[in-house]
Amino acid sequence: MANHDFIKLEYDGATGVLIASVQLPVVDKDEANAMYDAVKNDLAGYPEYRHFILDVMAVDRVSSYAIGIMMKTLMLVKKTKNYYVLIMPEPLLHEIMLAHPEMFDYLAVFQSRAEALEFLK
Q1: Is the pTM of this model over 0.70?
Q2: What is the CATH number of the domain that holds 21?
Q3: Is 2 contained in some domain?
């Protein structure tokens, strides 16, 4: 499958988990739109997956516009237990929670891949 400089998609056939890992420290409008297009275009090239995780551990800062696009991107993928699953560093989590608390009605956020994978079981 296509991987890009800004986002990497990995599929684990044993668990049925597709993980999109953002590879940029700062995500703004242009980067967010490119990620949306990449996920939208690349999803069809992967086998049927059971779970999806968005890993933004490499991200230090994200614009409000990019958060909106991130939510639009998540709507392309399957929810798990009625949540979109994210892996996010704590400082970024706190920043986004203060600015957009309503988002967290739909997100299950974890600090590590192991925690996220445990949630998926």
Answers
A1: yes
A2: 3.30.750.24
A3: no
